[in-house]
# Entry
Amino acid sequence: MKALVALASGTLFGMGLLLGGMTDPGKVIGFLDLAGRWDPSLAFVMGGALCVTFPTFQLLRLRGRPLLGERFYLPTRKDLDAPLLGGAVLFGVGWGIAGLCPGPAIANLVFGSPEVLGFVVAMIAGMWLRDRVATKAPPGASNAPVAAT
Amino acid sequence: MDIVVDLASWTRAGIGGAMIGIAAALLFSLNGRIAGVSGVLGTLVLDRPAGEAPWRGLFLAGLLLGALLMSLLRPDLAASTLQTGWPGMIAAGLIVGFGTRMGSGCTSGHGVCGMARLSRRSITATMTFMAAGFATVFVMRHVFGAAS
# Structure
């Protein structure tokens, strides 16, 4: 059942990404290009999503556990640290270069573009590289806990 | 500033966003999981916790299935205009992967789910990567680039 939920959620997510215009790098750059002809559409994607997730997530917090599972899997950290900020800066730079973030990049694979496939493979390599660098760093300069975001 | 006013596009964006929101709300309310694509993928490929491969794989397969379904329903919307060539795509992919792993999330995990939980880390990360995205496009298009 949980597997079915994951498939349904992913499918709805992918449909929303394409309908919202997120899978088109041109549309994304149009949104990020404030100084050009600014296309604010993608702000409505984030806004539309938050209109649903904000009330739902807040209500669920009162319930304490998910309907099918035993607990919510949430990140435990609360502090703002350098990896969070540095990682977000890097991610934003890459997003600005290609106009692709992880979800839309994967959904975009249905168009069969070799360059996008290259982006996704490079993205996985980048994640792997981060782990290599992080585990070589001295203790204390730690990686975030496993809790997935 | 020159703003593109396209009500049809804004409406589709809002509806598409709501669908993403419902997808994230489904996964969280039923399975207790955050629909953060970089986290789902990174954990599937690199951390490989026991027993979690099926739901992670199915969620990612769903992204493809959903995009395929929507592109069949609305072939007019199935556009993908690449903004950079091979070197840019590979470099951007590497940076996005490294950055999302380092910063514990991307647009979906931090932006759609974390902000809804009012997580201080996610709100900060979202503001940061948005600002970095705006700055990068400004530099590429208006400082170095010839494009308008």
